[in-house]
Amino acid sequence: MRISLDRRADRAGRVPLARQIQLHIERLIGQGLLGPGVKLPATRDLARQLGVNRTTVALAYDELVAGGWARAHVGAGTFVAEQVPAGEVARPAAPRFDWTGFLSKSAQVVAADARRRDRGRGPRPGPGLISFAGGMPDSGLFPTDAFRRVLNRVIREEGRELLQYYPARGYPPLREFLAGYLLRFGLEARADEILIVNGSQQGFDLIARTLLDPGDFVAIEQPSYPRAMQVFRAFGAQMLPVPMVAGGLDPDYLERLLERQSPKLVYCQPSAHNPTGLTMTAAARHRLWEVASRHRLPVVEDGFDGTLCYGERAPAPLKALDSAGLVVYIGTFSKILFPGLRLGWIVAAPDLIERLELAKDLADIHTSPLIQAAVYHFCRQRLLDRHQVRVAREYGRRRDALLASLERRMPPGVRWTESQGGFSLLVTLPDGMDAAALLDRAVERGVAFTPGTAFFVDGAGEGTLRLSFSGLATTQIDEGVKRLADAIRESERQPDRGARDRQPSVPLV
After folding, report:
1. For the domain bounded by 141-385, which CATH number is listed?
2. Helical H segments across 381-468, by residue range
3. Long-range contacts of 176-185 (CB under 8 A, 24+ apart)
């Protein structure tokens, strides 16, 4: 705790030093900056910090105790009182500096996106709410004990090196492992083509700050992942939506778009698409690669490695077709392992990896080498393989339960995608029904979802919603679908007069 003293006032004899200390601490307590029960610095320590006599500090503390602002315990010290003295009013703080006019255009875009998300939020969820809105892995399935044992061993054996600063490109054994891991899915990559990042979100950020200038265009599938859109917008890019066909971005539409626009890059999710759960066919992938290659259009592929695919295995990533170094592939362990680790990777041509590495070094120096090493050893012991088998089976059961419940309970006119991977699917409501307006009725019945407008570039998608099944038990899934179906039927009987501008009140993952 720092105490600022006005020495000029002291020399003039206006405010004694002890009184200055007392008033300053009272202000900190009154403004809540020192909470109830917080221990104040020892008189000796505070006197040394302020360059005053210890008796001066002791006198200030005595006055705080006498006034009811603090309590003293012999041998333990002086503590902030549990209650401010009755009738005391916190002294006003100095006027705060207004940063609004100093915000960059990027920060203003981020704030505008946040306001759009917050505006018109639904009612606060109550107890018993069944939420299809999360889109996150089930923490109950996390292999926490196994990972803890691996982490403890890594700290014991490599801690001194791994707790130091580390090269930005990442832990070499992990990059070597990833080269072999990605080969399982048909993607050939050398270790020097891999950069470790703090999750896919940092991957978007590094790519955007390395490749995009304000005013650039980005072609992007629609619907698409909201956080990718937000990052591109934050760097001043303008979105060019491309509709989906055959489980992914429409290559023929993209080619027609390229005849009249010149996007800097195209972003897509060929496998386990969020929000639809669809997977792009092999033929469509080849067609997209052919279009991108002919037009020399860089592709940012938001990769999903195939471990959470249901039914047929997903085709090889676009990056596997890339002989020209045009595709930038982003991968992550967040969906299959722990989101809290914030561990992902970028696969790209070596010269681009060098530029991305410079951007990462400037942003945060490196991703935690301790976490990287722990994940490497976790994978090397085949613990990841065992975990993948377990969660793929469980998420597959939940996906099947959701599809069966939708088929059994939804009224006519409701359609949905049949998720082939990932955690979610997209529902299309009957004509004229707005998902944002439906959300209020649904929450009243104890079920929540994410309105589809969050996933659309151009304000479309009002009649769609995303259902995520990963965080719910199968019994909850069926009951949640029943509640949602009842809310839809009620909306058909008593339609709202007008849909409100609403954004989802949950994290968009």
Report:
1. 3.40.640.10
2. 383-409, 435-444
3. 177/376, 177/379, 177/380, 178/331, 178/345, 181/305, 181/379, 182/305, 182/331, 182/347, 184/305, 184/306, 185/305, 185/306, 185/314, 185/316, 185/317, 185/320
- Provide the pLDDT for residue 124: 54
Identify which of 32, 25, 27, 31 has the alpha carbon closest to the alpha carbon of residue 78. Answer: 25
pLDDT of residue 6: 53
Backbone angles phi, psi at 299, to 5 degrees: -115, 125
The domain made up of 7-80 has a fold known as Arc Repressor Mutant, subunit A (1.10.10)
| Other residues' Cβ atoms within 10 Å of the Cβ of residue 351 | 8
Give pTM, 2 decimals: 0.84
427-463: string of b/e by CB count within 10 Å (b at 16+)? bbbeeebbbbbbbbbbbebbbbbbbbbbbbbeeebbb
pLDDT for res 62: 93
Give me the residues of the chain with pLDDT under 50, please: 7-9, 11, 119-123, 497-507
Assigned CATH for 108-140+387-493: 3.90.1150.10
Segment 390-428, tens digit of pLDDT: 999 999 999 999 999 999 999 999 999 999 999 999 999
CB-based contacts of 445: which residues, under 8 Å, 6+ apart?
483, 484, 486, 487
Domain ranges of the chain: 7-80, 108-140+387-493, 141-385
Structure tokens at 469: 């099944």
Q: How many CB atoms lie within 10 A of CB 198?
A: 21
